[in-house]
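Chain and backbone:
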Amino acid sequence: MAEKKSEKAKEKLHEVHEKSSGFKKEFIEFINRGSVVDLAVGVAVGGAFTAIVNSLVNDIVMPIVGLIAGGVDFTNLAITIPNFFGTGDAAVIKYGNFLQNVIQFLIVAWVIFMIVKAMNRLNRRRDAKAAKEETKEEKK
């Protein structure tokens, strides 16, 4: 009788191991999917690209914009609404900070657009050159 219990326990342990190995197999298949790996690569490259774009905007473009705009800084613009109920502080709406972030977003979007536009131009030239060489080889 003790032998039967031992066999049943071994069978249960084997079933649990098979289920967990099925889980492991499914997890490995999930990780090995191209889309997951592509996403991970995209996130890593996107992080590096973000640092480049931020440096370009903050260190090169924004000083030029600051010169053109006369050093205007919107971050200090705010509206203070007094507390009419007598408890707590007044409400401060910092719309200048919002405007500054919108302007910075537009500048970052413009910089990214210019980078993509330049890359597209280079790709078109490369493709045209490859097509031209292919045409030359076909004529031979």
